TrEMBL record, chain A:
Residues 1-25 form the signal peptide. Keywords: Signal, Transport. Gene3D superfamilies: Periplasmic binding protein-like II. It is found in: Periplasm. Belongs to the bacterial solute-binding protein 1 family. This is Probable sugar-binding periplasmic protein. Part of a binding-protein-dependent transport system for a sugar. InterPro entries: Bact_solute-bd_prot1, SBP. PANTHER family: ARABINOSE-BINDING PROTEIN-RELATED, BINDING PROTEIN COMPONENT OF ABC SUGAR TRANSPORTER-RELATED. One of its GO terms (cellular component) is periplasmic space. It comes from Pseudodesulfovibrio senegalensis. The keyword Signal applies.
UniProtKB/TrEMBL annotation, chain B:
This is Sugar ABC transporter permease. It comes from Pseudodesulfovibrio senegalensis. The chain crosses the membrane at residues 12-30, 80-102, 114-134, 172-190, 202-218, 238-260, 281-306, 340-363. One of its GO terms (cellular component) is plasma membrane. Residues 77-363 form the ABC transmembrane type-1 domain.
């Protein structure tokens, strides 16, 4: 008797749950959701996949995909600024995680603290601690990272290296020896492109010269840019530049990668979107067609940058935006988006079988390496500093004066409130 | 009498809306930009809902011209001058030359005219992208000789770091005074034929004296910077100038061609009868007659050269200071660095530079009309 009652109860409960499930899946949110991003061209499909998940969960919400084209968001960011100043914020917008968000929008008190959403969804454990520290301040956590890119990667073609009789260097000293051999054979040792890639190379060199702790100290203001260590960075960077191609400023990063693929250059330091480019566009197999290692002297360190979405104060459809952020941070959203985008998930529990060989290796490193932020892609410094740093870099490329560049960096750091 | 004033009333009422709109949206905003350029609207909280703006006087301007970190702006300013001069010389010269050739009515003139005018219908961003490919260091123009069996060129059209005509920004004040002396002397020489006495008294003597004084005592003038800072003409800007000339010489050609067609055939015949060669006809008759066209071409082109933005963006990217331009710098300073005050200051400097092109023209045309009355 008791047994059958239990059975009956179980059946009732099961029926109730079955009935309740669809009701739970389809939320009762309605209205609009405007998503502001610069993911148009190659990155459009990845964003569309995320929007599809959102639409399945919230069928009554009308999603407005407001993209402004332009690489790394140059145009989108200025449109966003005029919109925010005009009191017309989108519901959620894309921004590079880190100081680019914190130094601009959080400082201007325009963002909502996302800590409650992080806690409610268990994201405090899902994301690495080092990452959460870099996207938050003592007042809160400010964005949901959607993807992780690695910046300190050195790319090469193994077959070419074999032909030239060299091996991928682990340190810059090794690189200089290898570079001399390559130069003698008429090969450009390190391919470089237009000026932002010089900034990109600089941060990898700086991380190598300083190490992770001092790199972090640089951005917390504990280490001066014009200290002996700071000057050392520029000296090493100047030495590395001697082995780059002279026509760098008129090349795009893809053209620099092409130089490596075609065998005109041996190495290239670029973010891991280069893996996507070589695997998808150039049809090379990761691991055999092209290969990679951490840029010299940075093994065990993972310099990251991330695209993320935040929640502006006064968003017209706040609840819809919160639901959107939940999709972004979820395991399903993350593992749908990243294999298409060619990046890795920020979550520690992502399903690695969905990624290619490079993605798997990067994800493995992300789990165990020391995580540091990228300067060239907006993690460690605010926009004011980044803009001024482009001028300092320009000055250095022209004069190659390490002392002056270090002094100028310190000045712009003080001006932009990084150093004291 | 009453009829007249009613007509006037109607005219005033009809014009009033546009006067008000222009007053607010052009002059009002210029005024607002001037005000912003005199504040310290920048930094972390620049984008907050009620940003704090304090009046700081001319600090932004002083910093732009003499600050340690604003070398980039100064290079941009120098570039803008070279862009303007070379674009004017190139586009007006080549446009005029093509117009003269087409004025001789070669076969297929209509077709050729379209060919030359066509580049203008492209947007700068398209022109920039095309020329970026053409001027790529390892392709395009540089491999042309290989088709004829020659060696490829190695000229770095867009990425050269070489600079010629270098001067030191430290000597800013003497340079300005030299330029002023030069302008005086040129004006004086221009007026020499019509009114020698006035030309000497008003222009030539003061110009020469000013030049001499600066040459002798220029060292006593204050230095603009505490250290040496050299600027000059970067060879990397050649590629951009080339593309701009390509785009706009068709336009000046159309202007001149219309002018040449407007000159009556009788005049040409008369010149021929007097024994003028084709060359003499153009140099002494046709081109002087088209002075108004030259002036409007110069004004429009100088304007364009001061607004150069998308072309540079497409060809060398935003962060290549060697080929930079104040307009690009203004955009980056305002919208990337969030330094609204300094961005406004750059805008006002550009506005004043544009004014130096247009105000003399306005003054001259106003005087002409008054004299004609």
């Amino acid at each position: 008797m008791k047994n059958s009652l239990a059975k009956l109860l179980f059946v009732v409960a099961a029926v109730a749950m079955l009935g309740a499930l669809p009701a739970q899946a389809a939320s009762n949110l309605s209205g609009d959701l405007e998503i502001f991003s610069w993911w148009a061209g190659d990155e459009g499909p990845a964003l569309e996949a995320l929007i599809d998940i959102y639409k399945k969960e919230n069928p009554n919400v009308n999603v407005i995909n407001a993209t402004v084209t332009g690489g790394s968001g140059v145009n989108a960011k200025s449109v966003l600024k005029t919109r925010m100043l005009g009191g017309n914020p989108p519901d959620s917008f894309q921004v590079h995680a880190g100081q680019e968000l914190i130094g601009t929008w959080v400082k201007a008190d325009r963002m909502e603290d996302l800590t409650p959403i992080f806690k409610a969804n268990g994201w405090m454990e899902a994301f690495p601690k080092g990452l959460i520290k870099l996207i938050g301040t003592d007042k809160g956590i400010w964005s949901v990272p959607v993807n992780i890119h690695r910046s300190n990667v050195m790319w090469f073609v193994p077959a070419n290296l074999k032909k030239w009789g060299v091996e991928a260097p682990k340190t810059w000293d090794e690189f200089f020896t290898v570079a001399e051999t390559l130069k003698a054979k008429g090969v450009v040792p390190l391919a470089l492109a237009q000026n932002w890639t010089a900034n990109h190379l600089w941060e990898s060199v700086a991380l190598a010269a300083l190490g992770a702790d001092k790199w972090d100290a640089l951005w917390s203001g504990d280490l001066a840019f014009d200290s002996a260590d700071g000057v050392k960075v520029w000296e090493l960077f100047g030495k590395v530049l001697k082995y780059t191609n002279s026509d760098a400023t008129s090349l795009s990063w893809q053209q620099a990668t092409d130089m490596v693929v075609d065998g005109r250059a041996a190495f290239n330091v670029m973010g891991d979107w280069a893996a996507g480019y070589m695997a998808t566009t150039k049809k090379l197999a990761p691991g055999s067609g092209f290969a990679w290692s951490a840029s010299p002297d940075t093994t065990g360190e993972f310099m990251f940058l991330a695209d993320s979405f935040g929640l502006p104060k006064g968003a017209p459809h706040r609840d819809n935006a919160v639901a959107w952020l939940k999709v972004l941070g979820s395991l399903e959203g993350s593992d749908t988006f990243n294999p298409i985008k060619g990046s890795i998930s920020a979550r520690l529990d992502s399903d690695l079988s969905k990624y290619n060989a490079y993605g798997q290796s990067a994800a493995a490193d992300f789990g165990k390496d020391r995580i540091v932020g990228s300067l060239a892609h907006g993690v460690t410094a605010n926009e004011g500093f980044m803009n001024d740093f482009a001028s300092v870099m320009e000055m250095f490329l022209k004069s190659r004066n390490a002392q002056a560049a270090a002094k100028a960096s310190q000045q712009i750091a003080v001006k932009n409130g990084i150093a004291k | 009498m009453r009829e007249v004033s009613r007509d006037r009333m109607k005219a005033v009422i009809a014009l009033l809306p546009s006067v008000i709109l222009i007053g607010v949206f052009v002059y009002g905003f210029i005024g607002n930009t001037v005000w912003i350029s005199l504040t310290d609207w920048r930094g972390g909280a620049a984008l907050s809902e009620n940003p704090v703006k304090n009046f700081v006087g001319f600090e932004n301007y002083v910093e732009l011209f003499t600050g340690f970190l604003d070398g980039r702006f100064r290079q941009d300013l120098v570039n803008a001058v070279y862009y303007s001069i070379l674009l004017l010389a190139g586009a007006v010269g080549i446009g005029m030359f093509i117009a003269i050739l087409l004025d001789r009515k070669p076969r297929g003139e209509d077709f050729l005219r379209t060919v030359f005018l066509y580049p203008m219908s492209l947007s700068f961003i398209v022109t920039g992208t095309i020329w970026r490919w053409l001027l790529a260091p390892q392709g395009g123009v540089n491999i042309l000789p290989t088709y004829l069996g020659g060696e490829p060129l190695h000229f770095q059209w867009l990425s050269s770091m070489k600079t010629v005509l270098v001067f030191d920004w430290q000597n800013l004040f003497p340079i300005i005074l030299y330029a002023a002396a030069f302008v005086f002397i040129v004006l004086g020489l221009g007026k020499l034929r019509r009114d020698p006495g006035r030309a000497f008294k008003r222009y030539l003597v003061p110009g020469v004296v000013l030049g001499a004084v600066v040459w002798l005592f220029g060292d006593l003038l204050p230095r603009a910077l505490f250290m040496e800072e050299t600027h000059g003409f970067n060879l990397a800007t050649l590629g951009i100038i080339l593309a701009t000339i390509w785009q706009y010489s068709g336009y000046t050609m159309a202007l001149y061609l219309a002018g040449f067609n407007g000159i009556s055939q009788d005049l040409m015949d008369a010149a021929r009868l007097d024994g003028a060669s084709d060359f003499d006809y153009y140099v002494h008759v046709a081109i002087p007659m088209l002075k108004p066209i030259t002036i409007s071409a110069v004004i429009i082109l100088s304007h364009i050269s001061l607004k150069m933005f998308d072309l540079i963006f497409a060809m060398t990217g935003p962060d290549n200071a060697a080929t930079g331009h104040p307009a690009l710098n203004m955009y980056l300073t305002t919208f990337r660095a969030n330094d609204f005050a300094k961005g406004a200051a750059i805008a006002i400097v550009l506005f004043l530079v544009a004014g130096t092109f247009i105000i003399p023209y306005l003054v001259a045309s106003y005087r002409q009309r008054r004299n004609a009355r």
